[in-house]
Design a protein that fits this description.
178 residues; alpha/beta; Double Stranded RNA Binding Domain; 3 helices
Length: 178
């Protein structure tokens, strides 16, 4: 019985000690102090790349907002949030990655893989801690086989996959500080 009381006492002390620590962590890996940082805002990201679907900027903006809402306790506000994100999609391009050489001299070589690359330039402002501010580019790519499918057939899937990775990288660089 003494052992149980002793363990319970140690557990209670440990629980209070952990709660008293000033560093705040969450299951998503953020280190946001919700006592002083309560809101975030995202300006519309425009597609300045000259490529991609017409709604790509809006799709990225909404995906970014959704990700921060799902993974933080911050309230989304229209403008002037404690944390502010803005920027643009600055590159959208495809390029061959591997060529398939034909043994027939009358058949031209063709790309065996095409790579879609998207680059997003982001400015992050933290009104509570200016040392966290940053302005940088984030990019990601995804490959597809142009011999079996066209870009139009896989474009929305590739863009979604690329945006998920870019948004995760932005989140990590801005509020997770890994």
């Amino acid at each position: 019985m003494k052992s149980l009381k002793k363990r319970l006492g140690i557990f209670i002390i440990l629980a209070f000690s952990i709660q008293a620590c000033s560093v705040k962590y969450s299951f998503t890996g953020t280190n946001i102090d919700y006592d002083i940082t309560k809101t975030f805002s995202v300006e519309n990201f425009f597609n300045d790349s000259g490529g991609g679907p017409a709604n790509m900027g809006q799709l990225f903006t909404e995906s970014l907002k959704d990700f921060y809402q799902r993974n933080t306790q911050l309230e989304l506000v229209r403008s002037n949030g404690d944390l502010q994100l803005s920027g643009a999609i600055v590159r959208y391009n495809t390029a061959p990655q591997a060529s398939v050489t034909s043994t027939d001299p009358n058949v031209p070589d063709r790309a065996g893989q095409e790579r879609l690359t998207i680059v997003v330039e982001v400015e992050f402002i933290n009104l509570q801690n200016e040392e966290d501010n940053l302005k940088r580019s984030f990019s990601f790519f995804s490959d597809y086989n142009p011999r079996t499918t066209s870009l139009l057939q896989v474009e929305s899937t590739l863009i979604e996959e690329i945006f998920e990775n870019i948004i995760q990288d932005i989140f990590t660089a801005t509020v997770a500080n890994w």
